UniProtKB/TrEMBL annotation:
Pfam families: zf-C2H2 (PF00096)
GO molecular function: DNA-binding transcription activator activity, RNA polymerase II-specific; identical protein binding; RNA polymerase II cis-regulatory region sequence-specific DNA binding; zinc ion binding
Name this polypeptide is given: C2H2-type domain-containing protein
Gene Ontology CC entries for this record: nucleus
SMART domains in the cross-refs: ZnF_C2H2
Similarity annotation: Belongs to the krueppel C2H2-type zinc-finger protein family.
Lineage, uppermost ranks: Eukaryota, Metazoa, Chordata, Craniata, Vertebrata
Free-text function comment from the UniProt entry: May be involved in transcriptional regulation.
Keywords, in A-Z order: DNA-binding, Metal-binding, Nucleus, Repeat, Transcription, Transcription regulation, Zinc, Zinc-finger
UniProt subcellular location: Nucleus
Sequence ranges assigned to domain C2H2-type in this UniProt record: 48-75, 76-103, 104-131, 132-159, 160-187, 188-215, 217-244, 245-272, 273-300, 301-328, 329-356, 357-384
């Protein structure tokens, strides 16, 4: 197994001397200088220097693997899930997410890690060591990569560029999360139930539903409890009908800020996310990601029991319940159970009488949006687009 790359805090003397001169050079010229000068590429201390970002590595192969983070090349693929990686070592570490293996264990608290380097960083949380300091503001950091990210707050540099929407990012992690908005990729999967997530933090929260970890934040109005106070606060708005996010254009209110952001685009008509394969545009990156699958017949997620294939990991998880008969979502009013959370939400409206989808032409209201769509076909000879446009203009 390959060792992890070792990042070194100290820059070689030659690089510091050249720094001011290099800042004034065009990127192409600076790159050529580094190629022509072996003393810059292989420093005094036998370190190998990346001319794009300044990182140093103990062996040339680590530099080669690192450069792929700039080019986007990922030649190593996982046989289990098909995900691609820039180096064999990161593929090996990723493989442990499937097996659950965490061979590197903290001797202080027992926490396990899939790689040795994260364990080294973790040990500093116990020792309090922060060996990497910023020369501008004297702030210290546990990891060299954290210092590199921090320095960009002074230089305002944003080296990560999205070619889909032209946005720039300061951190590679932010850029990686952003790219998933275009592809709708959800690489973090629960090994227990198969549900997939686009962020590690969301998977971590979900895993607590299986571990039975205590929910410390009770609602007070119903029997629900939550693991995070922010989740409880959002939930409480269902009972209080509080909608603190108000549209300044039409006065409509929303429980969540994200809902207001989506709504505002109905006024501006903004659809910044364009499909490069057809003329369609979308107001949200997630909508574009879902649309992109209509251009491909690839269905990478399959049911192990019946072989049926799906385009999304979440679709497999929902499908599996047809085999197990599992109905984990129970109504607190009548004890009826459902396989999907949305089905429970629709059912709850039979108790509350809520009908949030009104027809603007005749005033009739409906519990579900698809019921409204079916209904409005009875107006204007079934011209749904006419009725919807007419409703929006009222």
């Amino acid at each position: 197994e390959e060792q992890e790359p070792v990042e070194v805090k100290e820059e070689p003397e030659q690089i510091r001397i050249k720094e001011e001169h290099d800042k004034d050079l065009e990127p192409e010229k600076r790159h050529q200088d580094n190629v022509d000068n072996p003393k810059v590429k292989q420093c005094k201390t036998d370190l190998f220097y990346c001319e794009l970002c300044g990182k140093c590595f103990g062996q040339r192969r680590y530099l080669t693997a690192h450069k792929r983070t700039h080019t986007g090349e990922k030649p190593f693929s996982c046989r289990t899930c098909g995900k691609y990686f820039t180096s064999q070592s990161t593929l090996t570490a990723h493989g442990r997410t499937h097996t659950g293996e965490k061979p590197f264990q903290c001797l202080v608290c027992g926490k396990g890690f899939t790689q040795k380097t994260p364990l080294s960083y973790h040990m500093r949380t116990h020792s309090g060591e922060k060996p990497y300091s910023c020369e501008t503001c004297n702030k210290s950091f546990r990891q060299n990569s954290d210092l590199a990210c921090h320095l960009r707050t002074h230089t305002r540099e944003k080296p990560y560029h999205c070619e889909v929407c032209e946005k720039y990012f300061r951190h590679s992690s932010e850029f990686a999360r952003h790219k998933r908005a275009h592809t709708a990729e959800k690489p973090f999967s629960c090994q227990t139930c198969g549900i997939c997530f686009n962020k590690q933090s969301k998977l971590t929260d979900h895993l607590k539903t299986h571990s039975g970890e205590k929910k410390s934040y009770p609602c007070g109005s119903c029997e629900k409890s939550f693991r995070r106070s922010s989740s409880m606060i959002r939930h409480r708005r269902i009972h209080t009908d509080e909608k603190p996010y108000i549209c300044k254009v039409c006065g409509m209110s929303f429980r969540l800020g994200s809902h207001l952001t989506v709504h505002l685009k109905t006024h501006t008509g903004e659809k910044p996310c364009s499909c490069k394969l057809c003329d369609k545009s979308f107001s949200e990156h997630s909508s574009l990601g879902r649309h992109m699958r209509t251009h491909t017949s690839v269905k990478p997620y399959s049911c192990e029991q019946c072989g049926k294939s799906f385009k999304r990991c979440n679709d497999v998880a929902r499908h599996m319940k047809t085999h197990t008969g599992e109905k984990p979502f129970q109504c607190p009013n009548c004890a009826k159970s459902f396989a999907q959370k949305t089905a429970l939400s629709y059912h709850m409206r039979t108790h509350s009488g809520e009908k949030p989808y009104p027809c603007k032409l005749c005033g009739k209201s409906f519990r579900r949006s698809n019921d409204l769509v079916r209904h409005i076909k009875s107006h204007r000879g079934g011209n749904v687009n006419y009725v919807l446009n007419h409703s929006l203009s009222d």
